[in-house]
């Protein structure tokens, strides 16, 4: 999904819509949700225990990955472009969790 695609749900808030959709997928990954073509699973192993994390990367308008800083006591330059949605409230405010950390300068 992209803001540049007209296939979007008629909203100009594409990041909010995508993050909400990812959150819904994570919330739906229990045994109460069915399976089938309309339910996007990660991989083809439906008999495996269901993981609810849908990792994703946010990109800036210039196409660069958006990174969050994750300070630690021993390291001063930890950042990551990979997130998980923890929650989205009624005002479309999302809480994201950093999933992996890139140490130091990779340039």
From TrEMBL:
<dbReference type="Pfam" id="PF10612">
    <property type="entry name" value="Spore-coat_CotZ"/>
</dbReference>
<protein>
    <submittedName>
        <fullName>Exosporium protein ExsY</fullName>
    </submittedName>
</protein>
<dbReference type="InterPro" id="IPR019593">
    <property type="entry name" value="Spore_coat_protein_Z/Y"/>
</dbReference>
